[in-house]
Write a structure and sequence with these properties.
- The protein is of the alpha/beta class.
- It has 6 helices and 6 strands.
- The protein has one domain: Flavodoxin domain (Rossmann fold, 3-Layer(aba) Sandwich), CATH 3.40.50.
- Strands 1, 2, 3, 4, 5 and 6 form a 6-stranded mixed beta sheet that branches.
- Helix 1 runs parallel beside helix 6.
- The protein is globular and about 50 Å long.
- The two termini are 19 Å apart.
């Protein structure tokens, strides 16, 4: 199994990356290959609204860091994306990535992501405000389903603000571990059904 982790926080070693790395440990412990992308360290321009990906090709006309990310998403079984909430929405880095995912829509707005893939959207916010967190998560969960992911699981982790808070939050880290364990288990059961 191949997994891709996409870090949407500009802070390396911050709360968002901490929880993503806990998930990566569970995946690697089960024998999964894990690739990582840090959006803040990826050279990427914004969507130009040119419609090239609808009229000419199924890829963006811009050849930059997003080109490799398209391929990594299509070759992964599981894509885990993490973003902090900044000003009631995802980080700017994550929004830029989402805008470039426009290429995952056909002209008829049918998703181009290969069938059978699962995504996890981790939303970390400083406020202890589940409603805000779920509002952000629901919007992007719906969008990634429309891009073609067969399953999208949100994980909202509120009340995590100061650097290092996540490391001192075993309940939140255990929720992340449990979600990945559940997904691995359901994936194994599905594989057995296909083989049987």
């Amino acid at each position: 199994m191949k997994a891709l982790i996409i870090l949407g926080s500009p802070r390396r070693g911050g709360n968002t990356e901490t929880v993503l790395e806990v998930m990566a440990e569970v995946l690697q412990g089960s024998g999964c290959q894990v690739a990582r992308v840090c959006l803040n360290e990826t050279e990427m321009r914004g969507c130009q609204g040119c419609m090239y990906c609808k009229k000419v090709s199924d890829h963006c006309c811009q050849k930059d860091g997003m080109t490799e990310i398209y391929d990594l998403i299509q070759s992964s079984d599981l894509v885990i994306m993490g973003t902090p909430v900044y000003l009631y929405d995802v980080s700017g880095q994550f929004k830029l990535f989402v805008d470039r995912c426009f290429a995952f829509w056909e002209r008829s707005y049918q998703g181009r992501i290969k069938p059978g893939k699962t995504a996890v959207l981790v939303v970390v916010l400083g406020q202890d405000n589940l409603q805000l967190g779920h509002g952000v998560a629901d919007k992007y969960t719906d969008l990634f389903r429309n891009f073609g992911f067969s399953r999208v699981e949100p994980l909202v982790l509120p009340g995590v603000n100061a650097r290092g808070t996540m490391q001192k939050s075993p309940d939140r880290l255990n929720a992340a571990r449990d979600l990945i364990t559940k997904l691995l288990s359901s994936g194994n059961e599905q594989a057995k059904l296909i083989e049987g």
